[in-house]
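step: validate -> pass
step: tokenize input -> pass
step: predict -> running
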Amino acid sequence: MGRPGTAASWEIFFGLLEREASAVEFEAPVLEARAAGVSPAHLAELESAKLAALRVRALLERRARREAELAALFDTASDLAGLRDVDAVLQAIVHRARRLLHADVAYMTLPDRDRGDTYMRVTDGSASQQFRMTRLQLGAGLGGLVAQTGMPYCSADYFADDRFQHTPEIDAAVKDEGLVAILGVPMRLGDQVIGVLFASHRSVRPYGPEEIALLGSLAAHATIALDSARLLTETRSALAELSAANAAMRAHYITVERAAQAHDRMTNLVVRGGGVNEVAAVAADILGGPLVVLDAEGRRLAAIDPPGVSARDQLDDDHLLGEIMAKAGKLGRTARLRDLWAAPAGAGSEPLCTMVLQQSEELSGSDQRILERATLVTALLLLFRRSIAEAEGRVRGELLDDLLNGRVPDREALHSRATLLGIDLTQPHVLVVVDHGPQRRPAAWTTDHALSRHGLAATRGEHTVVLLPGSDPTAAARQLARELTSALGFSATIAGSGPVDLPTGAASAYQEARRCIQALIALGKEGATASADSLGFVGLLLSRGADVGTFLDSTLGPVLDYEDRRGTPLIQTLETYFASGCNLTASAKRLHIHVNTVTQRLERITALLGADWQHPDRALEIQLSLRLHRLRESAVLTDRIEPLQ
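step: predict -> pass
step: emit ->
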């Protein structure tokens, strides 16, 4: 420090220190004293005070710079603690490096693993687009040297420095930016260099150890930021994967739960004796859409519309149902056509049923399995029902066979066997014979028909014989014909007989019905339905005991009733009309009335008997009835005649 100066000399330099004067300003007091001609001793004191003040000033500058550096590092640490955007943190680090080192440009390069080179991740102060877009080969340039050695490297004059590999691309970019002095420090993560942080100037200058250390500290923070970002990304990725796995597990759980619920509900239905409709209702409720169940022939076994679901237009399209049913049957699994989803089920190679759901949205794999399971349960129910029907049908068929063969003479034994089958033989019964030819489908259908109506059925060759509750054989035969046509789509020749006097009258009733079928076929009326009572005069020939009164009532009853009430001689008019060869004029002459009167009477007869009463078949029956009526009126013929052999 030298000999202490006077208090006045120190006061001058303290003032300069206080207002943070530049180093040049500390020369002014010495120059002024020299110009004033002060003594050499005083000049020496001033010079000594100046040097001491400059040393203090330098110390203060270093401390201020160090405080700024520490503040910058503290800010960087704060940025890392609240890391949200890694690019923003890296940009802040590069900006601080440029500011603290008073650099013209600061930048950071990172390796690109996919392309095998390095690229500019962040720049600050750069004016050259070419420089910012530069990609560096691994190991090339000053940065390549830093990355390879893992040590800081600085060049006071880049283009004059031959200690590293120059490349035309890098040199052109550096020249375009106007850089001369460059300092690069490695960003180390363990033993690995993951990038390089640079500070550069556009003039020749060396870099001191403090600057290298400062830039190294910032590089360490940048490394932490990148590694934290990597860990954060990996953590987020792991969390996303965990969340996705959790969502998938939950979806799987829900799927399994729905499938288990569907299985439990359908199993409970089967155990409790539920049928096809109940299973279909469960499937529609779980899958949330209307559906139909079709048998192997495409006929509807069930149709369900869940509450709140109205769109079922495609399920009403029989052609579309046929297409989706064929497609599902060919695939052997769930098939889709427009908004319809169909699942088939069968026993071996025999198709049993198809369940068709209308659902516009994509049906998940689990929901498809639910639809298939519901169809399978339905098929099992149908098989079970068929087995029961076949077993019961055999028992019922054996009883009817015994009746037809006269092997149940004891009425008490008959009632005992019938009661076990749920049949009340105290009620009247009729016998219906269905001529279905060699086809087995009508035979199976008529057996089911008899079972559903608490009757008996037995198959005899190409006939199925059905014993049904009722007293009108014609009505029973016609109803069976209508339902058979509706169910199977074709007609069979059907005849009825009865009421049957059980147990002894079954055989004769069967023979009468067979004769009716033979008569229908002989008359060219295959596929028609009749009974002896409905065949008119032909029925008189076929009946076990012809009932003339019934025949007259069915043929002329309305005319006879009208004549009794009004007194109009319609019967006489009919007899005269037929006797005159259906000639109006001749009939009028014979009746001694006007032709218009004959016409009016014939119109009344048409209203009573129907428009076809003059058809040859009807006309023949009416003429026969007129003669029987005349005979009965003359007491020649009673209401009953013996059976014709």
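step: describe -> The chain has a mean pLDDT of 79.
step: cleanup -> pass
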